[in-house]
Predict the structure.
Amino acid sequence: MTYATGLGVIAAAVVWLTAPLWTVLWDAPSALGPIQWFAVSAGFAPLVGFATGYVRRIGRFRQLAIFTLVANVLGMAIGVAAVLAWDNAEALLVFPLVAQLATLVGALILSDRRHLGFGSIASARGDVAFSWRVTVASLLSYGIGNIVKIGTSRVLGPDYIGQWNRADVLSAVPFQQVQAALIPVIYPEFRHDLSGSERTRAVWTDMLSLVAWVVVPTAGVAAVIIPTVLPVLFGSGWGIAVAISPFICVAAAIQVVSTLLASAVEALGKFRWIWWTQGLLLLIQLLAVLAISLSQSIAPAMIALVATMLAQHIVYVCLCVKDDYLDGRSLLTTYGIVTLASVFAYFMTQSLLWMGTSLFTLAPVATLLTLIPVAALVVVLWAFRWKLTPVKIARKYGLLRG
């Protein structure tokens, strides 16, 4: 708790003092006020991470979920009032700040306030050292996730980042929520696998396979639906957001699987793997910025977004297979089938969307002929549901019954 508080104070000071630098870097002078206000969020972030992590560690998932829901609803209500009252960019920060502080209060209550007080950081020297290595890795990840965005902002203008962020809201954030639910729960369990074993090889392979089956075909569906829904929800003027949203859906789905394995590598303390991989990903980002500058297009940014997630996952999979943490042949087979299923899901969704918009113009017989194959597919999948690979894995670990 003492370490988290100290780290938060340093983070808040750094964010506040470097706010002018960030506005220059992003070429967005009007962002100065919001960035300075976000120093408050940076200050409390380590405390929130520690408190919520501890509550998960002692198994109070349900209570924490309720507290988090209440905190976010409260934040939304106060945030809407702030936007209506102030009508400026700073008002948009009220929601996340209120939600963050309310979550912190709830987590401290659930931990029975055992951590209130001050302790000696020296007694936790090993944990602090690990924390700093993770912090450096996280800063590198920040760079990898934002160099292309910064390059896009400077070359094409901040408006493109606005389009990108608007597409993110519908395309990436839902997948990020899945990732945020998975990682904190699973991360502590990787400590059992420091030396590797047959159990590790089987469980890690099943874990990645199951998550891939859930998120990647979902991305195939989302890549069709999001471009259709986005202009309906946000109105006109978001053509670029519509065009790039399918790429963001695919990248976000791969990111869930890739980050899951990356978190395992981090938990095992394989920082040499991390530094080399981060170096490769940084190179991809720099090449993407160069391509954006030469082409004056956002297309290289979208290609780099997908390529970065794929490259990270391929490198970590190869390293983990080499050290016997993963069953490479089984995982490769699963990924191939998942890819085919995702492509099928994409074209099936396209067909259903076309049918939905064409039903009123087709003759009754033609309508029936287009619906029969879809109904047949649904019946077949339902009849053989217990033989589907993701269902088998879920039943194996007690996630499904039947």
